Each structure stands twice: as C-alpha cells, then as structure tokens.
Amino acid sequence: MVRHPRDYSWSSYGVHARGAADVVVAIHPLYRALGRTALERQEAYRALFRPALDAGFVDALRAATNGGWALGNARFKQRIAKVLKRRVTPLPKGRPRKASQDRRQLNLL
Known about the structure:
The N and C termini lie far apart (71 Å). The model has no long low-confidence stretch (mean pLDDT 91). The chain is elongated. It is an all-alpha fold and 109 residues long. 40% of the residues lie in helices and 0% in strands. Among the domains are: 5-47, no CATH class; 55-84, no CATH class.
C-alpha cells in the first residue's frame, strides 16, 4: 500500500486533485457536485484525503480485501451473500466444539 493516493501510479487522484489530463478517467457526477469550478472541486477532493483513517477501519478493510470478504454492516453482508449465493464472511476460527455429553449417572433403581 502507498501512504497517500497521489503515490499510487494507477490512481485517479492526479486528475481529481490536481487537474492532470488522463483520457482513461471519466469525470463522475459525484465529483462534479464537489464544487462549481474545477479549482473548487480539486480543493474539495483533496480535503477528502486529509484526515487519517481509523486504524480499526484500515485493519477491517485489509482483512476483507485479503480474504475476499464483504465489508459493511450485517444487513449489507446478508444482501451481498444472497445475491452472490455464497459466504461473504469468514468462518469462526478453530474447530467446532464437540457436542457436550451429559456425564451424570442415571439411577435406574
């Protein structure tokens, strides 16, 4: 991973944050809504990257990405699992517990 999106070669950050030309990048309506002028949009876009991401979120994102799992709340994960017709969360770690056997002695007399 890179420290900042501007450091990633395939990022659209240069187009959106600095106005660099790139024929591959299409300007999305959500980006256009960030400001009335190109300079306003670029500043608003750069502001999105100023706050540091929460470490817990980064860990969850990394685990989901590396495992191929869905990232979101329980309802979102259920909907994605239904659409994909597969598990979208990892199984619990470790072996399943054995069924507990009742070891009490039965008095038949």
